[in-house]
Amino acid sequence: MSGQLSTKAPVESVKAERSLGGRIVEKISGGAVRVFLILVGLFWLVPTIGLLISSLRSPEDMSASGWWKVFAEPSQLTVDSYQKLLENGDITSSLFNTVLITVPATVLVVVIGSLAGYAFAWMEFPGRDWWFLAVVGLLVVPVQVALIPIAELFGKVGLFGSVLGVILFHVGFGLPFAVFLLRNFFAEIPRELLEAARLDGAGELRLFTRVVMPLGGPAIASLGIFQFLWVWNDMLVALVFTNADSQPITVALQTQVRQFGNNIDVLAPGAFISMVVPLAVFFAFQRQFVSGVMAGAVK
Q1: Among 15, 75, 211, 282, which is 20 to 30 Å from 106 by CA?
Q2: Alpha-carbon distance 248 to 234, whole Å?
Q3: CA atoms within 13 A on the CB side of 222
Q4: pTM, entire model
């Protein structure tokens, strides 16, 4: 009897410990953590909310008090700043230039990176591994090293100061990461699936468009989001390679600050539009982004 009691005691203690641990896990995964995460998310959005409210206030109200005063005086809200923004030719043209730079730079990187990633993953050609190692080596080249040489090259061929020059620069520096990411993702596709498609008569182009691209959708979406955010928020490359006619919104806002330090009625709505577009793109494709990250983690 004493032996049975001695063996039951540790079992009961283990069950008690497990039940205590289970209760702790249940509490951690319960509503308290959800409330905490919501608070963290709201705290992360405070600068964006503050910028939005500031863009809806008059310059006099902004200079007199902080943006949080609007909760006590909602009558301060107005859209006059956005009307002035639309009347500012430098800001509106820079917004158009930003779209004109970001969209082609993102699409070209995704398309060329997908084709190259598929070629490196599933096509046989001389020097394939060495070429891929060269692409991987380009990942460590910092942007700052190439600014002056490429600026001189663009000046000789007539691309310096143009939108096309900025697009080509972003595409050139975005492709190594795109090829590296998509090649590793495409290489995890089962070979049997591709062989079955080839037996059905599918060529390389049809195999790429009908099999590889749908399976690689999450990774391609993640790459597109990264590239879009990088190009849209870029200021260094735009400062070097653009002029007054081709500058994006980041450079235009910086110019407004330098020339008109008190021009807050234009800067606030312009900065909010510059911030809200990347946020909208991310939240619109967050499901694909998370799927791509999780798929890469599993692989």
Answers
A1: 211
A2: 9
A3: 18
A4: 0.77
